[in-house]
Specification:
Elements: E1 4-9, H1 20-36, E2 40-45, E3 49-51, H2 70-87, E4 92-96, E5 99-101, H3 103-110, E6 113-117, E7 121-123, H4 137-145, H5 147-156, E8 160-161, H6 162-168, E9 173-175, H7 180-192, H8 196-208, H9 214-229, H10 232-243
Parallel strand pairs: 1-2, 2-4, 3-5, 4-6, 5-7, 6-9
Antiparallel strand pairs: 7-8
């Protein structure tokens, strides 16, 4: 698909909530994309919702022997998924086509660029079942929105409309429902034609900015710029600029 892949969460009858099988399938799809050398990925959901988080029927205490160990669920499934998305050396676009709730919000926010349909809502539903935001949810909320809004959303579980999410800086852009997928696919295709090495290192640099000191980050930028400057894409970009033509980036490191 032109150097990029579209991955769809596909349990629409359960609002694409996660069971163990879907966890493993999504992780395998992302790893397969990484190993096949694609240069961008698009994640979305089937049906009327993006993802309702964990399928609670899979973790119903009344149907389990002993107390549920939700920490183990995170350690074995959600946390490796979030780490994988953040570590992928290409952009990951998320098209939130409907409601995102619980860990479904966390997964969307782990992606690099989040687009949402006008009808979409983001719900920190953990408080409704006595849990805390997980899969990086409390981390992302605090950094993107600040403590006041993060606490209010997490403690009240009030739905956040997509337009407000974009206004507050939780996501990048809200689009008409009927335009979401066309624009998301166009954006992903455009990223796949870009200077992949530079985009990957840009992603890493921005993710590191929250914990680096300025001195550390200046050194990191210099290191990454040295790598990019030695790449074929930089040479091609400069040539295209001077020759007043569109660049033909390959994404190769050397």
């Amino acid at each position: 698909m032109g150097g990029w892949v579209e991955i769809t969460l596909n349990r629409p009858e359960r609002l694409n909530s996660f069971n163990d099988e879907m966890h493993l399938a999504l992780r395998a799809a992302l790893q397969g994309a990484r190993d096949s050398g694609v240069r961008a990925a698009l994640l979305t959901g089937a049906g009327r919702g993006f993802c309702a988080g964990q399928d609670l029927e899979e973790r119903d205490p009344e149907k389990m022997q002993g107390r549920p160990d939700l920490g183990r669920t995170l350690a074995e499934f959600y946390n490796p998924l979030i780490r994988l998305i953040r570590a992928l050396e290409f952009p990951v676009v998320c098209a939130v086509n409907g409601v995102a709730a619980g860990a479904g919000v966390s997964i969307a926010l782990a992606c690099d660029i989040v687009l949402a349909a006008e009808s979409a809502k983001f719900v920190q539903s953990f408080a409704r079942v006595g849990l805390v935001p997980d899969a990086g949810g409390s981390w992302a909320l605090a950094r993107l929105l600040g403590e006041a809004r993060a606490k209010a959303l997490a403690l009240t579980a009030e739905p956040l409309p997509a337009a407000t999410a974009a206004q507050w800086g939780l996501i990048w852009k809200v689009l008409p429902d009927d335009a979401l997928m066309e624009q998301a696919r166009g954006l992903t295709a455009r990223l796949a034609e870009g200077p992949t090495l530079g985009l990957a290192l840009t992603k890493k640099a921005i993710q590191a900015a929250g914990t680096n000191t300025l001195e550390e980050h200046l050194d990191l930028e210099a290191e990454y710029q040295r790598i990019c400057g030695e790449s074929p894409d930089y040479a091609e970009g400069v040539s295209a600029f001077l020759e007043k033509r569109a660049p033909n980036f390959t994404g190769r490191k050397e």
